[in-house]
């Protein structure tokens, strides 16, 4: 490299982070992604893995080692497509697991993740974004539920000046508050 053509590295101005200086507030929804999600399938607790009998079901729950679920996020479901599960059985499972963790969800893993995102977004203190330009980051290693973007946009729109999706270098405008004249 010829220093006279390109200049010396020592004399060049430092690289400026225009994104950091832009005043954009970035929300990375991947930060809300839950860890320690484990399944609880009630199929093994059923007679022949398809028939719910109350007394054996209760005994199986009571003798089941629930401590492996301590402080974990659990999604409860039944993988048997033919089993008929009465509502009280789900309640018994919830009561059984609630003794070791309050983080119990009904449904599959995707439904559970969506419910966790909903909870996190509904409890997010959004005042810090009031009158700000906000971008919801679109790149993540984990799949963020579409419903999370929907819900956060709905919560932010009344208070932000603008809302975008993507990355600061290539964002999609979603909403811009009209300036009153």
Summarize this structure briefly.
The protein has five helices and seven strands.
Characteristic terms for this protein:
181 residues, alpha/beta, 2 domains, 5 helices
Based on Cα principal axes, name the global outline.
Answer: elongated
> How many individual β-strands?
7
Structural class computed from helices and strand pairing: alpha/beta
Helix and strand run: HEEHEHEHEHEE
Mean pLDDT figure: 88
Number of helices: 5
How much of the sequence lies in strands comes to: 15-25%
> How many whole angstroms does the radius of gyration measure?
25 Å
Low-pLDDT runs: none
Q: Major beta sheet, specifics? A: 4 strands, mixed
| Number of separate domains | 2
> How much helicity do the residues have?
25-40%
Please tell me about this protein's structure.
- The chain is an alpha/beta fold and 181 residues long.
- It folds into 2 domains: 3-32 and 124-176, no CATH class; 37-112, no CATH class.
- The protein is 28% helix and 19% strand.
- The chain is built from 5 helices and 7 strands, in the order H-E-E-H-E-H-E-H-E-H-E-E.
- It has helices at residues 3-6, 54-63, 87-98, 109-122, 146-156, and strands at 24-27, 37-41, 73-77, 104-106, 133-137, 162-167, 170-176.
- Strand 3 (73-77), helix 3 (87-98) and strand 4 (104-106) form a beta-alpha-beta unit.
């Amino acid at each position: 490299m010829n220093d006279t053509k390109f200049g010396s590295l020592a004399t060049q101005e430092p690289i400026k982070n225009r994104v950091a200086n832009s005043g954009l507030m970035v929300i990375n929804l991947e930060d809300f992604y839950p860890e320690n999600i484990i399944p609880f399938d009630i199929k093994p607790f059923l007679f022949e893995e398809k028939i719910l009998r109350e007394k054996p079901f209760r005994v199986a729950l009571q003798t089941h080692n629930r401590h492996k679920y301590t402080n974990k996020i659990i999604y409860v479901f039944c993988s048997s497509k033919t089993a008929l599960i009465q509502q009280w059985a789900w309640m018994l499972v919830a009561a059984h697991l609630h003794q070791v963790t309050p983080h119990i969800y009904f449904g599959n893993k995707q439904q559970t993740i969506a419910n966790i995102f909903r909870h996190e977004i509904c409890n997010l203190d959004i005042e810090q974004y009031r009158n700000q330009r906000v971008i919801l980051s679109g790149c993540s290693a984990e799949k963020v539920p579409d419903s999370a973007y929907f819900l956060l946009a709905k919560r932010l729109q009344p208070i932000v000046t603008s809302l975008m999706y993507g990355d600061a270098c290539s964002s999609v405008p979603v909403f811009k508050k009209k300036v009153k004249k």
